[in-house]
Amino acid sequence: MNKTDLINNIAEKSGLTKRDVEAVLNGFLGEVTDALAGGDKVQLIGFGTFETRKRSGRVGRNPQTGDPITIAEAKIPAFKAGNKLKEAIK
Questions:
Q1: Sorted alphabetically, which PROSITE patterns does this protein's record hold (predicted)?
Q2: Which of 44, 55, 54, 52 is nearest to 82 (CA)?
Q3: Mind spelling out the 3-state secondary structure of 60-87?
Q4: Fewest CB within 10 angstroms: 29, 55, 72, 80, which?
């Protein structure tokens, strides 16, 4: 399912217009992005938690030459599923 499919499904089930659903979805995604960029986490009870995690730096290899390269540490987004979501998938 892509974003367009999601918007269509929500609009059909809720009775809202596709334009309204798209505005809400874009607003939600923007707020989650802003929160993660600011170092916060977004917790939706039963669904899951969006957060950032630190990936430490390490030494890797250039696949073309085999030379060692240093990979810097990074902050990456992560999602941890909640219990209700886990149960729904089983």
A1: HISTONE_LIKE
A2: 44
A3: EECCCCCCEEEECCEEEEEEEECHHHHH
A4: 72
pLDDT per residue rounded down to tens, the chain (90 residues):
999 999 999 999 999 999 999 999 999 999 999 999 999 999 999 999 999 999 999 999 999 999 999 999 999 999 999 999 999 998
| Residue found by looking up tokens 């399912």 in the block | 1
pTM of the predicted model over 0.85: no
Integer Cα distance of 7 and 25 in angstroms: 8
Taking Cα atoms as reference points, which of 75, 76, 73 lies closest to residue 56?
A: 73
